[in-house]
Amino acid sequence: MRIVSLLPSATEILYAIGAGDDLVGVTHECDFPSQAASLPILTSSALPTESDAATIDRHVRSGIHQGSSIYHLDAGLLERLAPDLIVTQELCDVCAVSYERVNSAALKMRGDSRILALEPSSFEEVLGTIGTLGAACGRETAAAGVVAQLAEHAERLRERAHRELTASPRLLFLEWSDPPFPPGHWTPDLLALLGLRSSIEFPRAPARAVSWEAILENDPDIIAVAPCGFDLPRARRAVADLDRHPAWRQLRAVRARRVIALDGNAYFNRPGVRLVEGAEQLLDALVKLAS
Predict the structure, then answer these.
(1) What number of other Cβ atoms are within 10 A of residue 110's Cβ?
(2) CA dihedral over 89, 92, 95, 97, signed as positive or negative
(3) What are 14-27's pLDDT values in tens digits?
């Protein structure tokens, strides 16, 4: 089978279930595992990717308002690769190439490529997508094994959090820093593994911006920042950039230096096989703050 993955999380899942050798094309953001970087790249971004969070947000909002896509898809290369299966998503036009654009390109191709769109909104549904991908490429047994391992890891993490988090801090988790986006979709489920919830959150729904006034009124004990698409160094820079906002500087967590920067790109924003690992990193940071 020839598979094109237009979703970094799907690329990670496909490798995890042993279907990596079937991949013939990926996105410019498919950076894990390292083997994915050697495959043909079908997408590029129109965003100023090295800019700060506020600048990227302005470009995204402007592009959406004008009806333009923030991702480019190489339809010619897609046709030349002649995939049997194209994996994409319908969850978020900001996270990956839109389903409409992929479908439009596929309709113009010769042959009969199947399009599989993934759109999990909870951790349970993320596990379900692993099974769905396994069924689509004949790796059902391997997919079931990966799901079982993740469920076991999640249960061990739940037990550890119960032992080590002797108090439940009032936590605010941010999926974007400027403007602030409290978490949506599966992230509240990851916090629940630790016996926590974000003081503002949108479970199983898209994250959305809230005002700095709302953040100041919320005034949490601890803030965790995992900006979508940012690795750890960029997340740390995003936290530093927040000092420009007077409301941020007034927050108790900021004044007490109880702000945690996390690698959102690898461990929180992608609905794939590393989510539980991300929750474990957050637990490590919380335990360290409490010691």
Answers:
(1) 7
(2) positive
(3) 999 999 999 999 99
